[in-house]
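Hey, I'm writing a tutorial for new members on how sequence and structure tokens pair up, and I'd like a real worked example in the thread rather than a made-up one. If someone can provide the structure for the chain below, I'll link this post from the tutorial.
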Amino acid sequence: MAGKLFVRRRDGRVEVRLNDEGRGFVRALFREVVAAERDPDHEWRGGLLPPIDPSRDEDDPLASLQRQQQIATNAELALMTVDEQYLNDAEAWVWLTTLQVALRATALARGLFDDERLEAADASVVDQVRGMQQLLFELADCL
């Protein structure tokens, strides 16, 4: 791709330079995260709700519930702002965290635990993962 997908503007906002196809890709990812949060049988559900380790404070049931609610809220806000040309820092952060959730959920659902398994995966899956990675790296660079 020629040029950056996300650019920090002088006024502090993050400009989203995705074409229609790019926005469609992001929209589909955000929708999947929202769907996985609502549907207990969704293939990404395991990536959203990792096992609880009671020996760690952040994995107690109340903290886990709070994380679930935050994931749902973030994904919904990301979906609501997917067509915006400019994002404020909070919206850009929501995009970043939701894309991270989508990447983790995809990797877990497809068993992509290392580079060898990724390279052996179907080309469409590899393209999807690489696309998410590019979006994450470029967006993180703006924050």
